[in-house]
């Protein structure tokens, strides 16, 4: 991802689902106008979810996800179905591809696997549209053909949900399908703010950004990039310093900043160098708020005070960066937790799209700031923990708690302090 790209987490995630050979991949190629995925008459050509970031008019920046067939078979097929289901956890808008010619032989009745998908869309509150593909193959005079004929560009209402008849082969109604996807996306609130609502035009914010060894050469890590952009969009000014420059910078400014935001790993030093009358927080805390789980994370962090020898803690990274010798997730946090608790817990680790459905073995789930995951996927992970009564928190909140500065770092959110009681 270049510095000018819209981050994946801020893109509308559009998932294409359906049975094998329903034309999911053909629809993806038709909607995007590109040969993004391989198309074949052989069932099960798509064996893993395939994602592509792009601009899709009239919607804007999106992430298109093509999935394996939901009716796959065999041991490998079960794994592919599981991966397709996992995509639902981050899908903002779903397109269910149905073979229109095949349903002609069933009186328009959807298959069991297709009905199951629709039930999952509704259960997870995912806006969706059914795309009856291959409408060019419908027999003349058929009931479906009547629906798909001259008015095929108009969506119809069915018991299963909104539907539209399209043809990936001829391009019929593909433009209208894109318009329907865009309309569904607009029913969701995708306007994200990190810090912009906490400052006023003319304010300035000091961002403390140690150069992270895990970041690619010549780049800042994503939360820092996004926060700078959000400060500027609020018509405020962003001043960026390293941790050892903060104290002198504050002394020379002559004006108090509206806020100091720090990388969690520098929390202790930054807290000591920031006067108590200047609000202080971290990128990780702001991202927990952005993703909608700050209150849950503040409640969950108190579980650290009750860890015993042998308890299991799950540490989750939303990305798959190369692990460094002193990696925050796999090295530093386990070390700090052991020092804080005086206990010897066990640690398990996941990264990227991995997240276990069964959290019962764990006493705590400790998540990264989730800058690479969208709000819907984070809601799924948080809800998984809540449904199983497993405390859930994130790196920055855990570090602030361990260092005894969590109350200060939540000062701008006074209602959350009650969660620590």
Keywords, please?
421 residues, alpha/beta, four-stranded parallel β-sheet, 15 helices, 15 strands
Radius of gyration: 24 Å
Structural class: alpha/beta
Shape: globular
- Unreliable residue runs: none
Number of helices: 15
* Order of SSEs: EHEEHEHHEHEEHEHEHEHEHHEHEEHEHH
Mean pLDDT: 85
* Number of distinct beta strands: 15
What can be said about the biggest beta sheet?
A: 7 strands, mixed
Strand content of the residues, in percent? 15-25%
User: Helix content range of the residues, please?
Assistant: 25-40%
Terminus-to-terminus distance: 42 Å
Put the structure in a nutshell.
With 421 residues, the protein is of the alpha/beta class. Helix content is 33%, strand content 19%.
Word description of this protein:
It is built from 15 helices and 15 strands. It is of the alpha/beta class and 421 residues long. Strand 12 (312-317), helix 12 (328-341) and strand 13 (346-351) form a beta-alpha-beta unit. It is globular. The chain starts with 11 loop residues before the first strand and ends in a 12-residue tail after the last helix.
């Amino acid at each position: 991802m270049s510095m000018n790209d819209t981050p994946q987490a801020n893109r509308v995630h559009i998932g294409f689902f359906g049975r094998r050979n329903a034309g999911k991949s053909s629809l993806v190629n038709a909607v995007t106008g590109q040969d993004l995925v391989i198309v074949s008459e052989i069932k099960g050509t798509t064996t893993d979810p395939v994602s592509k970031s792009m601009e899709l008019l009239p919607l804007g920046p999106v992430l298109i996800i093509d999935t394996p067939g939901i009716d796959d078979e065999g041991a490998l097929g079960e794994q592919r179905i599981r991966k397709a289901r996992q995509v639902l956890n981050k899908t903002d808008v779903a397109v269910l591809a149905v073979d229109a010619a095949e349903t002609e032989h069933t009186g328009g009745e959807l298959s069991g696997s297709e009905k199951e998908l629709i039930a999952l869309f509704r259960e997870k509150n995912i806006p969706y549209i059914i795309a009856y593909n291959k409408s060019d193959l419908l027999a003349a005079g058929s009931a479906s053909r009547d629906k798909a004929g001259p008015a095929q560009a108009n969506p119809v209402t069915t018991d299963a949900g909104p539907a539209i008849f399209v043809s990936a082969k001829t391009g019929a109604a593909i433009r209208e399908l894109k318009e329907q996807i865009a309309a569904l996306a607009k029913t969701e609130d995708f306007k994200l703010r990190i810090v912009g609502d906490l400052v006023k035009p003319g304010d300035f914010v000091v961002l403390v950004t140690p150069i992270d060894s895990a970041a690619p050469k010549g780049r800042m890590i994503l939360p820092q990039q996004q926060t700078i952009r959000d400060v500027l969009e609020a018509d405020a000014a962003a001043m960026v310093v390293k941790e050892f420059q903060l104290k002198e910078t504050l002394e020379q400014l002559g004006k108090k900043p509206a806020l100091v935001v720090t990388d969690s790993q520098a929390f202790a030093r930054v807290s000591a160098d920031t006067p108590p009358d200047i609000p202080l927080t971290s990128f990780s805390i702001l991202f927990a708020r952005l993703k909608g789980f700050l209150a849950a994370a503040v409640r969950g962090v108190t579980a650290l005070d009750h860890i015993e020898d042998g308890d299991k803690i799950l540490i989750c990274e939303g990305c798959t960066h190369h692990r460094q010798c002193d990696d925050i997730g796999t090295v530093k946090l386990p070390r700090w937790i052991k020092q804080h608790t005086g206990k010897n817990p066990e640690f398990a680790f996941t990264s990227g799209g991995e997240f276990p459905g069964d959290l019962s073995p764990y006493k705590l789930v400790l998540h990264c700031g989730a800058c690479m995951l969208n709000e819907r996927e984070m809601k799924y992970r948080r809800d998984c923990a809540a449904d199983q009564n497993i405390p859930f928190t994130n790196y920055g909140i855990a570090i602030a708690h361990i260092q005894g500065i969590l109350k200060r770092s939540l000062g701008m959110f006074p209602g959350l302090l009650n969660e620590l009681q």
